[in-house]
Amino acid sequence: MEYAWHKNGVLFGTWSSTAQQLVVAGWAVGDSATLLVKACDSETPQACSGNVSNSIAVEAQVVPPPPPPPPAVGASSYMASYVFSLAPLRAIVQDELLQVIATGVIALSLLGVSQAIDGYSGAMMNATYETAPPGGTTMMSAANEKLSSLATGSNQVVESLGSASSTLGQEASRGVFCTFLGVGYTLVNCSPLNAFRGSLTSAAFATTVALADTFAQQFILSMAANYAFTFIIPLGLFLRCFKVSRQAGGALIAIGFGFYVAYPTVIVASENMLHKGAPSSPPEVPVIGACSPMSTDISESLGQFRNYSNSLTDFNYIHDLVYFVMVRVLFTSILNLIITLGFIRAFSHIIGSEIDVSSLARIS
To answer: What gap in Å lies between CA 228 and CA 256, rounded to an integer?
Structure first.
């Protein structure tokens, strides 16, 4: 293989057996570069195909230099206040420079706290649980591991309810048609089992909501992991450097930091401390046995109906299933979100902003 760079569609340099590092010093705004590759015969030196066999679609646009940062603008304004003897401007600039320094301290504090939590997350989880979960090297990955486990359990319950409802429908629909002295009649001794189908459908709907809730939490964590420290918090730090946008900047910082650090921490802590003794997986839904529609004894079908009813309402079974779906998944997710919103409101107040999360708390 041989490689060469093209600048604006024209060969830039020479073909070589290795891809050379491209130096773009002195390039103009709008210039582009493309790395081209062509196949060569290793046994015959310099025997390369005349056509380019593969073009890597990498376009490196040269962008203009960024504007000067807010500290540079503030320092220039501060010096100008002395040159032109503008005391009022000097007081304003001093306050703004102080806010810029405070913003830098906030940025360093956010990074430090984030690194500390990720660094000690394994020890924190070992202190609240028997063993740290797999993939728990950071608090974000540990929270995702917890939510994945809850999603797997909720999916198992939905599948178990679907299987039990399908089997119940098959058995309840069985019947026998008989004739006696030319008179036809039908025995449907298994039809009372249909009474359970409504309850199983409602349980499946509630479990589906719980499953969707775990997916929503994973989506929030994914958004925080991808955009908190790459977009939301940097934008908040930039906006906080200016007086007119200081409130919005503080709000963005609090939201990004809250959902990146506080939210996964609350998920791991609540799961480990509140549900430490709970079963790791939900129980299987009981399945109805075979029903014989040919039996003329009503006590047989009635006994089967009562036995299945007792198995569905057994305290040990219903306690573990309801606890997993309603408490461990649904209620805990609401609690985690409320705690995170409370942290965001308190943290935004500390850094000089105010967020009213009362409406969001009511929605949660």
So the answer is: 5
